[in-house]
Amino acid sequence: MARYADPFSCPSCSARLPVAVSRCPSCRLDLGHPLAAQLLQTLTTADDLLVRLQVASAEQPTATAVPVERATYPAQTPAPRQPRGLSGASVPRILLSLGALCLLVAAVIFLAVAWTWLGIGGRTAVLVGLTLVSGELGVVLARRGLRVAGEALTTVSLGLLALDVIGADNAGWLGHLSDPALLAVTSGAVLAAAVALAATTRLGAPQLVAAFALTGLGTGLLVVTERWQLVAALVVVAYAVLAAAGRTLHLTVLPVAAIAGGALWWAGLAVGGLEEATDHATWSELWLDGHVCALLAAALLALLPLAVDRSQGLVVRGLVACSTAMLTVTVALPAVDETATTLAVAGLAVLASWTVVTRLVPADWRVVPGVSMALGALPVAATVLGLAAQAAANALDTAAPFSGSLGQRLADPGPLAAPVLLAAGTTSLVAAVLTLVPRSVTRLLAGGGVVAVSLVGTLALHPVPIWTVTAALAVLGAALVADAVRRSDQLGSAEAAAGGTAYLAATAVGLPSATLTAVVAALVVLAATVVRWRGAFPGAREAGGLVLPVAAGGFVWTALTAADVATEWRALPVLAVVGLLAIALPQLELELGGALTAALAAGVAVPEAVDGPTSLAVHLTVAGALVTASALVHPGRRVLGWPGGVLLAAATWVRLADLGVQAPEGYTLPSAAALLVLGLVRLHHDPTATSTARALGPGLTLATVPSLLWVLLDPVSPRAVLLGAGCLVLVLLGARLRWSAPIVVGATAGLLLVLRELTPYAADVPQWVLIGIAGTLLTVVGITWEHRMRDVRYAAGYLRQLQ
């Protein structure tokens, strides 16, 4: 028969065990642990229960009356519903906790009341006796399995021990200690007793009391002595010893409580040490006067948990990173109170040193120098950002556009730190980032671009001529665009965008000089041309086509500005250049860029003209002619005829308004005539596929509706006569040619005109006339209806006769 309890078999993996072995050779199970003995006892009990169940089953008669198809176990009765309220195990805990509290309160009352009338011997005997009895009884009960009772009585014994020490001090046996000293002595006695009880009984309460008692001991010593750094360090070490002892004794509560207490004391030591070092942040005070000792001790004590457990690799690396970071702060702390340059140089040294270390350590250990790198990067990044902002402001804070000369210099910004730190700090930050992340071509190019920008920014922090900064930015943009053109992936798009940004920055810096701006615009035209026809990256054609007309217009404008051409005459050459470019390359991106450039140029030039309306009319005419020409030259751009016509009509209207023309026909009839001519040409080329409504409707509507609206306001005028004659001509011509559009437009406009002419006389007609007219209409309709019904009946009778 198989047995559950087998002393020669491993209870975990069932491997055979040799004689006198403490661990299973197969699964490394600890067979010498007290829990192993308890497990063997439990399995032995299970074997005994199995034997008793087999005997009881053999004594019962075999049931044969009811056939069964398969063996079944007895039906399990549902578990009873758990009653609400306290469980059975909670009751003794509550009772014993209250009992322990009552015993401690009674002991305190005993000290307060009975201490005066008991002699020294009696008092000593009572207190020591109660302490020993409660402690021994707690140990005995814990060994017999009554752990709750053991917890309560051992807690009472420890409390009584504290009262014993206090009573001894009051009796003068300890020399009347001060309160902090008494706290330290009492906590020390309780700590020793709690550790002894925890090791003997493995109860949880003594383990917690031991952790708290060590804190009391340290607090008392802090007040007694002035060497708080030494006390705090010793308490942290003591907590580490407690944690190690707890792990050695296989205790569960003591290691956790000791680690928590040690962490609190270590944090206090670190904060206090940092505060002290900050208050004395000079080299002599820190290292010669010893104000750095607490911070150094905290940095070294951060590694104490490794003496207890080094199995968790992540925890080990985190503790080492914390310790090295604190040591780094300790070394670099004297630079905090110095100038921004000194602080940045210190951060730069820290960042560079730990970057080198990061390259040397394995990948899974890079978190250790990474924390120290971050600490060094903070002042470096702050200095770099500040210098970059100053460089940008200095480069852009120049004279008004086109008001300076080519040799104009930048101002001296008075940088917050040495200008060279902008490039050096940026290079160090880029190197640190590339060390921590996997390197790729994209990241390397991005880092190189950032370093190049920092070099230009360093140049802008000096009072140099603006053309030097502009040239540096233009060269950077050209290099980026040249590399982007040869690429066919998204990296090329990113490089092209970065190059465009560099060109834009070069334009902004060189804007005070028209000649310098024209040179940059010419370079942008060349770059856009290369991207448009040679770029292989996604979107190169569209990007180049969009930028090309803008850059070409900018070049023409700035070149004319450098040649001292008046502002009012600069926009017409720009319109001509971008218009001809759009005609030569009829593509959407080129047309959009050209339209934007033309609008901007005209918007600047027209307000500067002496005769604003005439200048606006000229610009609208040129723009409309170019747009219409593109529609006529390219069959695929016929839709541009509409905006071209609108621009030409707008030019005509502006000119008519400037001449004082107020009649609407002067504004509408030219455009209407143009639309009618286009419609007639279309009907001539395709008379069957195009309706007259689509071909002639827009022109006829534009020719009649504005005049009709004017006539509705002034019905008695020569305009009304002419409009009526025109409507009659349209109706007759439409009837003659069988075109619906002239008939519909002429009849509608003529009907509205006739009704408007009738309106002044409608009020003078007597009411009986209106009633008579209504009755006549109704009578005619009724007679017509009856006549039609009679015809229907005659037709039906005729059909029946046919059947």
TrEMBL record:
Positions of transmembrane segments: 94-118, 124-142, 149-168, 180-200, 207-224, 230-246, 253-274, 286-307, 314-336, 342-361, 373-396, 416-437, 449-482, 502-531, 543-563, 616-633, 640-661, 695-713, 719-735, 765-785
Domain of life (superkingdom): Bacteria
Classification via InterPro entries: SCO7613_C
This protein's UniProt keywords: Membrane, Transmembrane, Transmembrane helix
UniProt-listed NCBIfam families: SCO7613_CTERM
Name listed for the protein in its UniProt record: DUF2157 domain-containing protein
